[in-house]
TrEMBL record:
Active-site positions on this chain: E160
Originating gene: def
Pfam families associated with the record: Pep_deformylase
Stored NCBIfam families: pept_deformyl
Cofactor binding description: Binds 1 Fe(2+) ion.
The protein's required cofactors: Fe(2+)
Enzyme Commission (EC) number: 3.5.1.88
Molecular function as annotated in GO: peptide deformylase activity
UniProt-recorded name of the protein: Peptide deformylase
Length: 188
C-alpha cells in the first residue's frame, strides 16, 4: 500500500528529470505499481482511510513522485452531486507514455493556486495552463487512447504530465506578479 512515506523528498533529483518511456508489454511489477498508485488516490479520498494512514487527499500521482522514472501516472477524479456524494468518476485512468498533441491558446488557472503531493508547503501564486488539451496515451493493456480535456480536468492532467518532464507547478508561477493573470488567462 502506497503511503506518504513512499513519496520522494521535493529536492530529490528524479523530480527534475525527464522520465523514460514505458516499454510494452509492460512488466508485471510496473503494472502492479500503477494499480497501487490509483489505489493510493482512492484511499486518500476516503476520509476514514486517509485519516488512518495520514494520507493527503490526492487527485493524481506520477511515478517519479514515488521514485520511479517511468512515464506513467494515475488520475482519480470523482464527480459529486449537490449533496456532495460521489456520483461517477470524471477521470479514472492510468496514463502510459502520455503526449499532449494539441492545446488551446487560451489559458486557465486555479484561482487558489496549485499544490503538490511532493511539495509539503504552500507556494503562493496562480499556475496558468492551456484551457483545453488533447492527450494521446496508452492504457495499461497498451491500447492507444486519445482524450480531450478542459478546465479542472485539463489542469490535473497537465500537472501530472509536467511531473514526467521534471517540471513542478511553481515553475509556472511568475514571482513578480504571482496572482496577476495575463489577458489570455481565466481564473477557475
Ligand atoms: C496536492 C493536493 C492538494 C493533495 C492536490 N489535491 C487537490 O488539489 N485537491 C483534490 C483532492 C482530491 F482528493 C480530489 C479533488 F477533486 C481535488 C493533488 O492531489 N494534486 C496532485 C499532485 O500533486 N499530483 O502530482 C495537486 C493538484 C494541483 C492541480 C492539479 C492537481
Ligand atoms: Zn504534483
Amino acid at each position: 500500500m502506497i503511503t506518504m512515506k513512499d513519496f520522494v523528498p521535493e529536492k530529490e533529483p528524479i523530480l527534475r528529470e525527464q522520465a523514460r518511456p514505458v516499454e510494452f508489454p509492460i512488466n508485471e511489477e510496473l503494472k502492479e505499481t500503477a494499480v497501487a498508485m490509483r489505489q493510493f488516490l482512492i484511499n486518500s479520498q476516503d476520509s476514514e482511510t486517509a485519516e488512518k494512514y495520514n494520507l493527503r487527499p490526492g487527485v493524481g500521482v506520477a511515478a517519479p513522485q514515488i521514485g520511479i522514472d517511468q512515464q506513467i501516472f494515475a488520475v482519480y477524479l470523482m464527480d459529486y452531486d449537490e449533496e456532495g456524494n460521489e456520483t461517477e468518476p470524471l477521470i479514472d485512468e492510468i496514463f502510459v507514455n502520455p503526449k499532449i498533441i494539441s492545446h488551446a491558446v487560451q489559458k486557465v488557472a486555479l484561482k487558489e493556486g496549485e499544490g503538490c503531493l511532493s511539495v509539503p508547503r504552500e507556494v503562493p501564486g496562480i499556475v496558468p495552463r492551456p484551457k483545453r488539451v488533447t492527450v494521446k496515451y496508452n492504457d495499461l493493456e497498451g491500447n492507444e487512447k486519445k482524450i480531450r480535456l478542459r478546465d479542472y480536468e485539463a489542469v490535473v492532467v497537465q500537472h501530472e504530465i509536467d511531473h514526467l518532464k521534471g517540471i513542478l507547478f511553481y515553475d509556472h508561477i511568475d514571482e513578480k506578479t504571482p496572482w496577476e493573470p495575463d489577458e489570455d488567462t481565466t481564473l477557475i
